[in-house]
Amino acid sequence: MKWIKQLIRFIIVLLLQVLLINNLQISGLCHPYLYVVCLLMMPITLPRWVDLLIGALVGLVIDAFCNSAGVHMAACTLIMLIRPYQIERMVVESERLTDEIGFSSIGPSSFSIYAALLIVIHHAMVFFLTNWFHSFLFTLLQIAISSIVTYGLVIGYEFIRKK
Amino acid sequence: MQNLLKFIQKHNNFLVFILLEIVALLLIVQNTAYPKSTLLSTCNSFVAWHYEVENTIVSYFRLKEDNEQLQQENAMLRNQLVLYANERERLKEQVTYRYANLQHHFIPAKVIQMQTGGVKNYITINKGARDGIAEGMGVLGPIGVVGVVSTVGQQFSVVIPVTSNTGFGVSCRMQKNNKIGTLRWDNKDDSHAILIDIESHVDVQPGDIILTSGLSETFPENIPVGVVEDAVVKDGEATWTIRVKLYTDFSKLSYVQVIDNDIVSKELEQLRSEMD
Fold first, then answer.
1. What is the CATH number of domain B170-249?
2. Mind listing the pLDDT tens digit for each residue in B133-149?
3. Which residue from A minimizes the CA distance to B189?
4. Cα–Cα distance for residue pair A18/A29, rounded to 1 Å
């Protein structure tokens, strides 16, 4: 049941991402990738290598929609690797988390830091792999602006979900 | 051996990670210039279907704009038709000539999705191999050049616009003095591109019209491309760097025509094989 919920969320967020957000091209600098919220919130009960495979698969689906074979796959796999270490660092209690990761399970401040870090890593990977070393400054600006917008969207999503 | 097994057991997560990253990197390297895999691109029918549904809804809000654009194109073509009809009458009196074979035919298509504003841009259209589209065909908008077909699916294709960082250039000429240059993109914005390879002694003025040269098989001759906005000769260079304002407005692009150059290509192929 828990995983069906995750899957439904993924489908909704994916459609939101490719049909709405990808079309809101305010400028070339702003390409928010809200879909990472699905990966951020996934419970950490699965073996880690399964987590990695899920990350790669989610990335590949996004890649097909963005004509960017491999780019999102690489970025998603990377944040799925870092994710459990980050959560372990945040959670003081030794009990194992079975809920999905969010404001209620690890606390608003911990979640905010965790989300910010992973979003920046993900976006940095995506934009560097897309642009290679084509224009360093442009890429940095892209990472900064897109990360901020994605971060806002993710936190907004959490607030809406809580209500 | 035992140590190796132990190592794998201990670091299996990390090894899975490395493996996945290698796969991702291979995919990236393989698809650097343009999407090569039909499955992993927007001409995948499952992916394109989503965009098509979205486009059907969105296009209702653009009907007025599209209509105006098509009307403009219609008017332009009608003017040209009158011009050519008169010309034909005139020629008829002077010489007897045989109609040339129709060299190109156009396949109309609808833009269902577009990514612009980044370094790598592309357009997805709703025609594919089934409709006779093949890789490398030229694509025209209502007025000017749009780009080249890069990936072809069964029912959908991906088009790389001239404003994309993929390294293909369009062979163009200046209308007034027939000088040939190459149009490339400077990674800046969707409404401009750069014309290079025209020698600095050639007279180039803002407002000059740029057309396709017809030297490549992709585009026929005399398709409008854009107008010169400004031109400079950079220090130590013998050629102009000409900034061209493109006629195609990518933000309003809804309908395109794909040029089926099959007849020309086959003829050229035949000629080449005869020469060998």
1. 2.40.10.350
2. 988 889 998 888 999 99
3. A28
4. 17
